[in-house]
Design a protein that fits this description.
Strand content: over 45%
Largest sheet: 3 strands, antiparallel
Number of strands: 6
Mean pLDDT: 94
Strand order of the largest sheet: 1-2-5
Structural class: mainly beta
Shape: elongated
Radius of gyration: 14 Å
Number of helices: 0
Order of helices and strands: EEEEEE
Helix content: under 10%
Distance between the termini: 23 Å
Length: 86
């Protein structure tokens, strides 16, 4: 079985007040990493990026999992998020 580096249970939802809650879990593969950056892009209805944020994990061990949660305030232009590992 191959081990895949990735994010699961990624969620990005906006409440009635414009507060976007971002959460998920990062899973490392079999390579120890000094640093992992997760870049979260905020998209409008047309899929255009209207902003982004990032979170960084340091000294990630082999097969380690890290949870993340964050908040961001957006107006009605916000539609969805996407996440990328760097």
């Amino acid at each position: 079985e191959s081990v895949v580096q990735g994010v699961e249970n990624f969620s990005c939802t906006r409440d009635d007040f414009g507060l976007v809650t971002i959460s998920g879990q990062y899973h490392n593969d079999d390579v120890k990493r000094n640093q992992v950056n997760l870049i979260i892009s905020f998209l409008d209805n047309a899929g255009n990026a209207i902003g982004n944020t990032s979170t960084t994990f340091s000294d990630v061990q082999e097969f380690e999992s890290k949870r993340f949660v964050g908040h961001s305030k957006w107006n009605e232009n916000f539609h969805s998020c996407q996440i990328k590992i760097e």
